[in-house]
Batch of 4 targets.
Target 1
Amino acid sequence: MGGRKSMEKTEEKLNLFKEMISTCHQLLLCTYDHDFFRLGNETEEERTAEELLFISLPDANLLEEVSSGTTPVLFTSRFSMMWLLCPEYEGGSLKLIHVLGPFFMDDISARAVSAGLAEAGATFTLRQKAENLISRLPVLSWGRIQEYALMLHYLITEEKIRQSDLRFFSDSSSETGSSQEQPANDTHGTYLAEQEMLRMVREGDLELIRHIDRIAVTGSIGQLAETGDTLRQMKNSVQVCATLFSRAAIEGGLSPETAYTLCDMYFQSVEKAGSLSELTGISQTMHQDFVRRVHAVRTQQLSKTIESACSYMERHLEDELSIASLAAYAGYTEYYFSKKFKRETGMSVAGYLRQKRLEKAAILLRSTDLDIQQIAIRMQFCSQSYFTDNFRRHYGVSPSQYRKDGLLCSESYATH
């Protein structure tokens, strides 16, 4: 009896959620059983949307992906149409799948989608129905998609999750981009959200780190790709963020050399990313990195000589550095340079250099597939075991565990 009441309560919540969304967007919300069979009656629009979803799945086992976890899955089809799939469990077993969509992240012409459907073998009737449906489908920002996913998951499970908990799945053809001519999209994100993010970087505002999940970390600033290639669009968006963040960081007091070096490093990491989930992790790490560095600069008054020496070290973390060479760069004797550096930074030269190398190693662990031995050598540690010992002391976990857990450089793991 209690289970039935719970089901009825969830159904009421879903209906209310559907009604609330309908005040802003024409989005479909349907429910399927654990074998992906539609439950309840369906409208003509819902039937067409279902056909569009299933025609994207011949080579993609979406059901297996959905049932492999408890959090929502964002599915992108080869036609750049997207759906949110939220699993509902009972007694540890998958019971229902709630599907929100389809929708787009960019302006896709109905003609372009129809051409893609024709290539996929869709009937003329389905293509006609699809064109009628597509003309009414909403174009959602990345931030709005994340919000809907978190709300729908909470409605079903009463569990609060983060944006970083979302899962991503694509039709095998969806990330290759569309060869069809697409109309230009002149939407360049939400100005106020962009300015708030840049302010946080410029001021070294650690609230960005404490509340990183309330910010749409990708998709809110600039869209420079040809529409139809979601992964490329997201990469461009993160790279635009990197550029704007580097400028804001310089305005906040970070040296241009350090800011541009960071920007270049994140550009490379973004280009190597192969999925939306990877990009989300890189983006969050990047935001936190810029904010922390600006915060450190603004709260630590350094002389121009020591600040220049710090910037030099950060640009040459992968090179062999000695106190003698750094003192020569600063124009001081080794003894005077070491004393002055310790007095201003509160750290020895060797300790500062080790900390910065560990921070960069953490970024490499998060954003590349280099093995730990390669990272240790690259960061000038004499052995993998020595690197591992230092990393564990600094972050509280081993490099392999850090990478496995997908940890970001958060305050709960850093010791400084």
Target 2
Amino acid sequence: MALSKPAPPRAAGKQKKADVRFKLTKAQKAYVEQLVTLDNRIAVCREYIALWMNFFRFFAEDMTRKEITAAEEKQFFQVMTALTRKHFTFVELMAETFDRGNDIIAVLSTAVSLTHIQNMPENTRGKLELDWHNLFLDMNRTLGRLLRRLPGNMTLSEALASVNAKPVAPDPGAARADGKGAKPAAAAGA
């Protein structure tokens, strides 16, 4: 009677990774190509910086005696929502020029609401403002690095004027919610 040799045990926690590739439609490929252009990366960076500045305007003033209205809380929440929704795109498109995505999340997690910020101890609020400013400077450095990649020998003002200010809008037809827009390459016969 021949005994079969058992398979060698796998190291704990190691699982075989599946190499999943997706075959994009022509529309999806075109959208991705537009998304990663230098002009679009600059537009996304500018848009995120504008949102970041708007976020700070809510708590830049002395809030110790300020009466916070429901409308202000709603506006603050809307800006926070926009920042968190656009965070992934911003961090991914800035790639090698900005590596502080987790720090943005930390600041946003600290600033839960205007009332929460108002009730923070002074040193915690001071740290929040300092972290915001450091991130703001790094975002602007990132924008400068991207602008220097533009062709020609333009000044910063000329470079900013030459770039489309609106980022590429998501194409609802390119990536469908039902998953039918892209097929795994194996299923598509590739």
Target 3
Amino acid sequence: MTDQSAAGPTTNFNYLKTGAGKTERKALCICCSYPGTQLALPGCVRDQAAMVDMLPKQGYDVTFLTDGDNYHEKPTKANIVREMKKLCAWLSEKEGRQGWISYSGHGAQVPDDEIQNSPCRIK
């Protein structure tokens, strides 16, 4: 809903009630920066470091997977899948919990090959 006044437009918000107490929040930040390769993405480390700095200030407990340092677990497929499953299970345990997933890294488009993806080939 927008209000027009002499000072300009204003917006009125209806906030959702979260109930009594503090909302439980968890975040998963994934950084695939490929250091030391021709595909290196140093900006990914900075982006996710900013997220890891900001999210706790918003009440999130953060899990950080990165190949940008030697202090955190690496963002391997196994680690990413494990942490996503843990986050989803945690979210499902109790109503009202909030989750956040952030990814920085390369993306790729995979061609649609109808023959290889045919359900008939799955045994």
Target 4
Amino acid sequence: MPHHVFGAARNAAPRAMIVADGFSCRTRITQGDTGRQAMHLAEALALGLNGPAPAGHPEKLAPRPSVRVCDARLTAAAALATAPAAATAGTYAVIRRLRL
């Protein structure tokens, strides 16, 4: 993601909606020390169904499940830790089949 996106998110007016449809883009804006959260287009449209946009930081009104950053990092670490074991088991199974 280009660094100018972080600057644009930091400098956006409090009333501005920051919309990014990709999960990784939204996550990077949230974790990129911008002080803002990007919204998915569907979240922005859902806010519009309830009347005019709020005066400040509209992303705070979008309902989202709370996921702590440490939980996400722990999940990523667990996935990285199990990947070599899965690769080793798969390699062993292939070698065993070739020997038979």
